C-alpha cells in the first residue's frame, strides 16, 4: 500500500477559551490540531494530528507540509521503515535531530500511517500492536542511542516475558477498562466552588485520582489543595501539575508547602529538558512521599532514557503526538518497563485521550503486563468532534473497538473550525 496524496488542515477551537488562564504557563490556549489525512492507493485514508496551541499550529502545519515529499509515493507496508524515513534523513537530521516542531510533524504523519494500517486491517491500533510477535514489535523501534540503557535483545526478553497472559489481560480490559484520572476539576481559572463541585462529581463518577493545576500563586494553591483534599478524602489521589513553572529550588519550596495535603505527584515541576533538575527535585521531595512525573514535553526517547537512568522520575508521561508517533512511544514503553516505572500518559488537549488509550492498552497487554499505579489522564473536552470518541465508564477508559487509531475528526468539525476561513473563525 502506498500514499498517493496528503491533505492538511489547521483546526483550532476557540471554544477552549473557557480554559483561558487554566494552567500556570498557557494563558490563552486555543486548543489546536495540526491535522493530516493520508490517502492510500487502496482508496483508504489515515488520519493523524499533533496537538498545539493557536499560532503554534501554523508553524506545525508548515512542517507537516515540508515533510510531505518524504511520504507521498512511499509504502506504508513496513511501519518501522516508514517512521525511520521521517527521522533518519540526513538533511532533516540537521534540524535537530528529533525534536521540536519537525518531530511533532513527524508524529502527525506517523500516527496517520498507523490509523491507515488499522483501518486497512480492520482492527483498532492497540490490537494490531498486541497481535504482533515480540520480534515484529522490536523491529518497529529506532534503536539508535539507546543501547547503554536497553538493547533489542533485552527488549525481546521483556516482550517475550509478557507473551503468556496476553489474552487474559485483553479479557480483563474488556471487563473493567483501563483506569483514568481526571484533570477537569483542577484548572487554575476555576472558582473554589467549582473546584469542590467537580472534585465531588469526579469521585461519584468513579475516579480514584484527580489533578489540580498549580504554580501561579502559592497561597491560592495551598487553599485549593486543602479544599480538594477535604472534598475527596484521604483515599483519592490528588496529583498536581506546574506546567514547567519553577526553577529547581522553587519547586521544592512550593511542594513542601503543599505536602501536608498529600499530593500524589508533582508533574512538570521545571523545564522538561532538565534531567538533573528533575532528579534533584525527586530526591528532595522523596522524604515527604511526593512523587515526580513528567513527559508531555519530553522531546524524544533519549531524554526519557536519561530521566530513567538518572532516577529522576517516578512516572513516565508519554504523549501520543510529541515524539515520533507510535514507533518512538514503543521505545519509551520498553524503557519504562526495563526501569520498572509506571507509564501514566498525558492526554487532554485535542484528541490526545483518543490516541493514547491505544498505547496504554498495548502496554498492559504486551509490554509491562501491569496496571499497578497506572492511569491515563482524562479531560472532558472536545471529544464530540471525533468520529470514534473515547468512552469512559466508572472512571475507566473502555477498550476501543473501531478500526484505526481513533484519530479521525468529523468532517463538519474540520470545515467549521478550519483556521482562518472556517465559519467559527471567519
Ligand atoms: C494547555 C494544556 O491544557 C495543558 O494544561 C495540559 O496539556 C496539561 O499539561 C495536562 O497535563 O493536562
Describe this structure in words.
InterPro entries: Enolase-like_C_sf (IPR036849), Enolase-like_N (IPR029017), Enolase_C-like (IPR029065), L-fuconate_dehydratase (IPR034610), Mandel_Rmase/mucon_lact_enz_CS (IPR018110), Mandelate_racemase_C (IPR013342), Mandelate_racemase_N_dom (IPR013341), RHMD-like (IPR046945). Keywords: Lyase, Magnesium, Metal-binding. It is an enzyme of class 4 (lyase). Its cofactor is Mg(2+). By secondary structure, this protein is an alpha/beta fold. It has 2 domains: 3-123, 2-Layer Sandwich (Enolase-like, domain 1); 161-412, Alpha-Beta Barrel (TIM Barrel), CATH 3.20.20.120. It has 16 helices and 12 strands. The strands form 2 sheets. Strands 4, 5, 6, 7, 8, 9, 10, 11 and 12 form a 9-stranded mixed beta sheet that branches. A 3-stranded antiparallel beta sheet has the order 1-2-3. It is globular. The two termini are 38 Å apart. The mean pLDDT is 97. Bound molecules: 6-deoxy-L-galactonic acid (LFC). 6-deoxy-L-galactonic acid (LFC) binds next to loops.
Amino acid at each position: 500500500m502506498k500514499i498517493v496524496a496528503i491533505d492538511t488542515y489547521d483546526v483550532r477551537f476557540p471554544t477552549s477559551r473557557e480554559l483561558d488562564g487554566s494552567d500556570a504557563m498557557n494563558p490563552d490556549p486555543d486548543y489546536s490540531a495540526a491535522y493530516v489525512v493520508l490517502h492510500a492507493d487502496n482508496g483508504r485514508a489515515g488520519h493523524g494530528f499533533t496537538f498545539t496551541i493557536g499560532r503554534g499550529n501554523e508553524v506545525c502545519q508548515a512542517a507537516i507540509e515540508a515533510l510531505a515529499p518524504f511520504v507521498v509515493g512511499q509504502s506504508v507496508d513496513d511501519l518501522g521503515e516508514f517512521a525511520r524515513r521521517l527521522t533518519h534523513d540526513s538533511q532533516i537530521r540537521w534540524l535537530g535531530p528529533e525534536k521540536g516542531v519537525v518531530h511533532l510533524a513527524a508524529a502527525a504523519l506517523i500516527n496517520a500511517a498507523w490509523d491507515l494500517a488499522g483501518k486497512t486491517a480492520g482492527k483498532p491500533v492497540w490490537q494490531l500492536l498486541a497481535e504482533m510477535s515480540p520480534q515484529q514489535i522490536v523491529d518497529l523501534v529506532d534503536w539508535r542511542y539507546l543501547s547503554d540503557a536497553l538493547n533489542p535483545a533485552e527488549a525481546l526478553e521483556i516482550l517475550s516475558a509478557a507473551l503468556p497472559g496476553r489474552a487474559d489481560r485483553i479479557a480483563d480490559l474488556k471487563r473493567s477498562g483501563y483506569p483514568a484520572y481526571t484533570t477537569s476539576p483542577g484548572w487554575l481559572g476555576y472558582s473554589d466552588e467549582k473546584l469542590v463541585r467537580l472534585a465531588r462529581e469526579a469521585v461519584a463518577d468513579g475516579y480514584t485520582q484527580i489533578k489540580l493545576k498549580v504554580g501561579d500563586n502559592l497561597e491560592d494553591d495551598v487553599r485549593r489543595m486543602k479544599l480538594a483534599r477535604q472534598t475527596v478524602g484521604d483515599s483519592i489521589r490528588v496529583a498536581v501539575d506546574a506546567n514547567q513553572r519553577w526553577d529547581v529550588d522553587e519547586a521544592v519550596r512550593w511542594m513542601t508547602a503543599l505536602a501536608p495535603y498529600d499530593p500524589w505527584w508533582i508533574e512538570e515541576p521545571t523545564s522538561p529538558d532538565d534531567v538533573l533538575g528533575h532528579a534533584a527535585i525527586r530526591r528532595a521531595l522523596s522524604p515527604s512521599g511526593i512523587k515526580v512525573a513528567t513527559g508531555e514535553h519530553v522531546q524524544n526517547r533519549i531524554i526519557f532514557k536519561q530521566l530513567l537512568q538518572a532516577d529522576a522520575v517516578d512516572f513516565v508521561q508519554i504523549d501520543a503526538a510529541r515524539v515520533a508517533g507510535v514507533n518512538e512511544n514503543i521505545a519509551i514503553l520498553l524503557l519504562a518497563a526495563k526501569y520498572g516505572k509506571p507509564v501514566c500518559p498525558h492526554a487532554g488537549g485535542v484528541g490526545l485521550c483518543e490516541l493514547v488509550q491505544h498505547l496504554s492498552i498495548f502496554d498492559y497487554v504486551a509490554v509491562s503486563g501491569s496496571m499497578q499505579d497506572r492511569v491515563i489522564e482524562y479531560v472532558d473536552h472536545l471529544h464530540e468532534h471525533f468520529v470514534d470518541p473515547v468512552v469512559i465508564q466508572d472512571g475507566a477508559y473502555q477498550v476501543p473497538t473501531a478500526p484505526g487509531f481513533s484519530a479521525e475528526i468529523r468532517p463538519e468539525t474540520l470545515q467549521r473550525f478550519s483556521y482562518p476561513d472556517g465559519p467559527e473563525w471567519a
